Amino acid sequence: MLHSPSTAHYTLRNLLVYFLKLGTWGFGGPVALVGYMHRDLVENKKWISEEEYREGLALAQLAPGPLAAQLAIYVGYIHYRIVGATLAGLAFVIPSFLMVLGLGYAYVTYNGLPWMQAVFYGVGACVIGIIAISSYKLTTKSIGNDYLLWTIFMVLGVTTFISESENLWLILGAGVLIWMYRHPPTLFTTSANIISPLVLQLQTIPVSNKSVELFWFFTKAGAFVFGSGLAIVPFLYGGVVKEYAWLTEQQFLDAVAVAMITPGPVVITVGFIGYLVDGVPGACIAAGATFLPCYLFTIIPAPYFKKYGKHPAIKAFVDGVTAAAIGAIAGAVLVLGKRTLTDVPSSLIALTTLLILVRFKKLQEPVLIILAALVGILVTYLRSY
Question: How far apart are the C-alpha atoms of 90 and 110, rounded to whole Å?
Fold first, then answer.
């Protein structure tokens, strides 16, 4: 049961300071971030119980959106309800948002400088290796030996690679397929007749103004993307590069690279993308629209999740969606790799990154990012002579 503020062993200020620090220094992606929260809040500080942590993690995995940010919001909700959830989420996200805002300004201002292009040449290739190994870990951890889930994974991987965009309906369909296969509901026909037209209408609402387009696209990104922060990559690629052509493929890869070199949630790359599209207003709209759904998907079901979160039908749906999302990530790795690894040096950087991460499992990605940036500068320098 969720407690009241009077039973908390820490103040709201303590919690906000913690998440500000985690958002400033928390490198390593969603898996590392949720691990830090367990170590710090459950084992060391004992602010929350093991059961409360597991409930929050389960809800974060169930709902679409960034895993680590949703867990931070849930932790804030445990003792301090809506106020705690809101402030904890903001404290966790704001440091990395300000960083990507600064990087976006530097990127736009100095885009013509060779050193900037050289840094992202090395970092972009390194990102391919990082995403590849992350995709492998997600796959082996989440899918296991289930042949149906492996089939879904492969179908989404191939379709994402061929179409170079994420198919939302295939992902949702995968969830329904596993749900129907494992725990077929008795009222499925009625529910489908009500829900499907509604979702279809939401997907086809026409928009024209750029700010409205930004808000609507990134709201969908936050509302319909399951899995870790990397799961949003193929969805964003299909929208900002293929559909709207807001960014070039190189700019998009640079945006992913920015997410890798900054702490906090990987999804904060949307702030960088928004800045490139429409400056500071675009960054604020993109970030706000992406995180709003995950905030609502966390605080609204929080009081009821303990009662219904372990329902077999819900778990089955999540398993199907997760397998599809991971398949889309694998397909996106191939798409980005095809576009990025265009010469021997970039291919070697990506391959070396992958091999190092396989050999040294505890090595932090920012170390590799920095080394890749230096290699990129060196390769560019040597090419100029």
Answer: 29
